[in-house]
Amino acid sequence: MADTDPTCELHIRMTGQAHDQMLRLHGDQPSEDDLASWMQDGAVVRLLVSETANRPPHTILVNFGSVVLAWLGPFKSDRGVGF
């Protein structure tokens, strides 16, 4: 998987934060229904992400119980990950 481009970008805003965070996702793209379900259930979800093109993807855990806004977009190669 390290040699593949990200599938999409996931933009999330956590409770109490003023700005969105962008995650470059690898593997199967979640649907909007997946995001809504994770947020409603307060699920902790394991995601495969990458920070830059020269670093291999790695797993992070996201607590969707703390997410107040989420949206999916196409991957754009000129942006890095925003933590």
From TrEMBL:
Protein name per the record: Uncharacterized protein
Organism: Sphaerisporangium album
